[in-house]
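hiii so um. not sure if this is the right channel but i have a protein structure encoded as tokens and i wanna go backwards to a sequence. like what aa goes where. can anyone help
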């Protein structure tokens, strides 16, 4: 039995999570899987009821399940709260409490959307790689940090175990794909990056089948746009991963298409990378594909059922190939449909 905790959150979160739950239920019925889904309030929706963005009950539920499915958090209604009371602070707390140290962001181009990117179709077609970003270390968390009237300072720090565990996870991911890993750093000028590179190469000895390449981060940014098909799995530190995963995501088209997974040793959280989009909330216009693709990642990474993940990706491709588009991915002449319409098409394709 698999236990999923659903935290739809705010804005379009409940709508896209509802679509994803339909897909989960369809897959469970098709394959005879025993899956339970327990829903909890989170973010602004929780604040309106409980006076706090993340209750102890919700946090405990997230700690005692096989996977967490998140919709989106935040919105104008809660913008003026103190920083530590905002929805985003609750999300950071979940990641910290669950010790989610790795963020997986795929850059996959669906054939039907190859013309939706700003890149030429011949450059983009066939692109399918994974960016693995270290999520809990590096310059975002290093001490000392601060600023005064004359200077500002931050510290980029990585400890051995932090690099070793993310490297091992990346090699594992590469073994399940095309066995190619690019480690991105700035070892020519940063001692912290040389430390990173040394450990990645040490871990590589345990994965001799994987082809390992080192690449400087400035060159990587250029190469992702110049020839994205050259990549299979990318691993990099927190700051570089923050930037490169957004570059990788945007070359594929709409944010409404992009899933993600935040993974630790014992817990995992799956979510679309888009925000709560309060301007279209409740209008049945949201694109649920990023959340549905996040479910595909859940089946692959948490449930070790890559065959099911592939079925979900294929169902998305089938719906898109039929010409169905939500407004965010529609081009002139396309058939614009609702959230429920494209969800139904994907479920039927399954």
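sure thing!! here u go:
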């Amino acid at each position: 039995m698999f236990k999923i905790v659903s935290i739809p959150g705010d804005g379009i979160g409940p709508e896209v999570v509802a679509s994803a739950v339909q897909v989960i239920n369809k897959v469970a019925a098709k394959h005879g899987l025993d899956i339970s889904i327990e829903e909890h309030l989170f973010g602004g929706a929780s604040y309106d009821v409980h006076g706090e963005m993340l209750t102890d009950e919700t946090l405990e539920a997230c700690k005692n399940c096989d996977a967490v499915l998140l919709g989106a958090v935040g919105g104008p209604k809660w913008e003026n709260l103190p920083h530590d009371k905002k929805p985003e602070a609750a999300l950071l707390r979940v990641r910290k409490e669950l010790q989610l140290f790795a963020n997986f962001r795929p850059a996959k181009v669906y054939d039907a959307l190859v013309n939706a990117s700003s890149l030429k179709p011949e450059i983009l077609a066939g692109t399918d790689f994974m960016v693995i970003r270290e999520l809990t270390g590096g310059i975002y968390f290093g001490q000392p940090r601060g600023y005064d009237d004359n200077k500002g300072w931050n510290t980029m720090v990585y400890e051995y175990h932090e690099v070793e565990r993310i490297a091992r996870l990346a090699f594992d991911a590469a073994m399940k794909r095309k066995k190619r890993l690019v480690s991105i750093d700035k070892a020519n000028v940063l001692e912290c990056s040389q430390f990173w590179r040394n450990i990645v190469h040490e871990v590589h000895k345990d994965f001799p089948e994987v082809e390992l390449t080192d690449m400087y981060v400035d060159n990587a940014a250029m190469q992702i746009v110049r020839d994205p098909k050259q990549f299979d799995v990318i691993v990099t530190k927190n700051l570089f991963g923050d930037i490169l995963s957004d570059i990788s995501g945007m070359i594929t088209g709409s944010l409404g298409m992009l899933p993600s997974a935040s993974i630790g040793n014992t817990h995992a959280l799956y979510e679309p990378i888009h925000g709560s989009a309060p301007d279209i909330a409740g209008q049945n216009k949201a694109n649920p594909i990023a959340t549905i693709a996040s479910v595909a990642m859940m089946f692959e990474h948490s449930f070790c059922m890559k065959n099911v993940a592939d079925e979900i990706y294929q169902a998305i491709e089938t719906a898109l190939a039929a010409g169905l588009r939500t407004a965010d991915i529609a081009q002139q002449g396309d058939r614009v449909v609702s959230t429920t319409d494209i969800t139904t098409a994907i479920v039927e394709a399954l």
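oh and The first helix runs from residue 13 to 31.
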